[in-house]
């Protein structure tokens, strides 16, 4: 048992973080749709999970997890999870996927729309979900898709309803890709939550009222301590889910280990990460007070991302309902 | 990164599970009754006969040199088997780590083997009437005497003291606040003990009155005056892993999920959330164990664990009370609920823990 990221996994995240710090500053969120995408492509980010025979690095989801968390921390716009995680599972043969030249979006089963579909070259549209059964999916080229923008909270993750005239049936199972996307989104939520906590702490240290930093007041301290606890205990659920996803993919070249219920581990990760990010957003807004309630403070982007990603690939209540259903079957065995 | 147990760890789990399946007794009376106390002592002695009472200790003191991960495995099996609460908790998980880190070899040899067999049962004696959360305000003192010390003053909320044989705590030998405190062990036979009934009506703790109780120098752990540092090292392990391992909460969560199986969806949803949180505590602990094994200091971050497990435990038992309604008293859940209520108070209140997290983990100003 070695339940910590390896130096290689952390170094990868460090590289992504450096790129995002330089090329995806908060100001870019106001002016660009795809800031830092070409730079991330240049460091191989979009090929991390692509098989080596398609010019990717062939890494596991868990290898990319800290890097994905960084994309959440930076509030990186664009269909990140869909292109970097879903596409390698579902469309590994698409040319130039690893180079980042092809962007992919996804309408998940039960989802209202596809994120940033207007920026995508290919859109995976899942059949409406039939209670846990893999209803399959089709791939739609951008030129064959008609997009109807849906109103939403996140200006940097815009959803569109997708209808289409032509499509190609997908020949790979959708479920493993959706599980990976859900875990990757949970990792982004952890990154969002960590960033929200950092900026809240920084603000509470500098903002003075009654002659003292507001962060010296116990009511403020305890609220932020609760966020720290929520994030600290959600993160390992996400890390476990990434391991469980890989352990349950027979063609990843790994021994298939005894994971009682991968879906349950994935749902636990998403529910906990979504709630931690939601708590972080609430605490961040309350700590900032009225200035936090403005469009002009950059905080709004991270608040919106917490809300949009909490709902993406199923909200906390939906995932807990799945867990409840799984537990009702009576199998309480755990991984590990 | 991986979450795989080694072959040796899996074998250890199987051995522990098998032994517990054959030996765990019917639920004994509360350890806070005379007959229950003796039943719990006898259970500790039986555990010790299989070298299972303190698995992580070195073999020479009665343990088996188990790794941190093996200890976590032991705890999972222990609580899943429905084994009795640990009457030796204060000694094994609080005093023993202190003796390992700060005691002399003579002290370890003198006390650890008997502790492992529950020949001695230890009470902790930190709080005083005017020193609770503000422990450094304590005024009980130790005065120099020939070859040792005489203890004066009053301790309170001393858990297990109603029936225990020995105690340990901090006494002032000089100075003020954190300076000049000394870590002392003492026999309870010369201490005036007033048992205090808890919410369940049983004397789970007691007040202790010291009127010149003599202890030789060999009962002092570390240097006189260094007690605060020594005690804080112990309480940080108390808040962290050793006080409440995940196994206890995993077992409770499993029972709660079973209890809530046919409940209405709103209550079942809360049970599912508790089950997730118990898993989160387990996984977080595997990560912490990895850090400790790698030589890292956990430090103030251990306060996060204390807040998390104590509030999870209370949520679980509170939900069980709701599910059971007036029938709760006919099940073990009522005792569990009363015990869980103490979690956010002992070992440093959760208000103190949140302040520690805010100031020393997050860096907010004092």
UniProtKB/TrEMBL annotation, chain A:
Transit peptide is among the record's keywords: no
KW ATP-binding (keyword) present: no
Gene3D superfamilies tied to this protein: Acyl-CoA dehydrogenase/oxidase, N-terminal domain (1.10.540.10), Butyryl-CoA Dehydrogenase, subunit A, domain 3 (1.20.140.10)
GO MF annotation list: acyl-CoA dehydrogenase activity; flavin adenine dinucleotide binding
Source domain of life: Bacteria
Ranges where the Acyl-CoA dehydrogenase/oxidase C-terminal domain occurs: 183-323
Keywords: FAD, Flavoprotein, Oxidoreductase
Pfam families xref list: Acyl-CoA_dh_1, Acyl-CoA_dh_N
Residues of the Acyl-CoA dehydrogenase/oxidase N-terminal domain: 6-89
Cofactor: FAD
Family: Belongs to the acyl-CoA dehydrogenase family.
Protein name per its UniProtKB record: Acyl-CoA/acyl-ACP dehydrogenase
Organism: Nonomuraea rhodomycinica
Higher taxonomy: Bacteria, Bacillati, Actinomycetota, Actinomycetes, Streptosporangiales
TrEMBL record, chain B:
Coiled coil region boundaries: none
Source organism superkingdom: Bacteria
Cofactor(s) for this UniProt protein: FAD
Domain annotation Acyl-CoA oxidase/dehydrogenase middle: ranges: 123-213
Swiss-Prot/TrEMBL keywords: FAD, Flavoprotein, Oxidoreductase
InterPro entries according to UniProt: Acyl-CoA_Oxase/DH_mid-dom, Acyl-CoA_Oxase/DH_mid-dom_sf, AcylCo_DH-like_C, AcylCo_DH/oxidase_C, AcylCoA_DH/ox_N, AcylCoA_DH/ox_N_sf, AcylCoA_DH/oxidase_NM_dom_sf, Mycobact_Acyl-CoA_DH
Acyl-CoA dehydrogenase/oxidase C-terminal domain residues: 225-362
Pfam families: Acyl-CoA_dh_1, Acyl-CoA_dh_M, Acyl-CoA_dh_N
Domain Acyl-CoA dehydrogenase/oxidase N-terminal: 7-118
Family membership: Belongs to the acyl-CoA dehydrogenase family.
Name of the molecule in the record: Acyl-CoA dehydrogenase family protein
Species of origin: Nonomuraea rhodomycinica
Lineage: Bacteria, Bacillati, Actinomycetota, Actinomycetes, Streptosporangiales
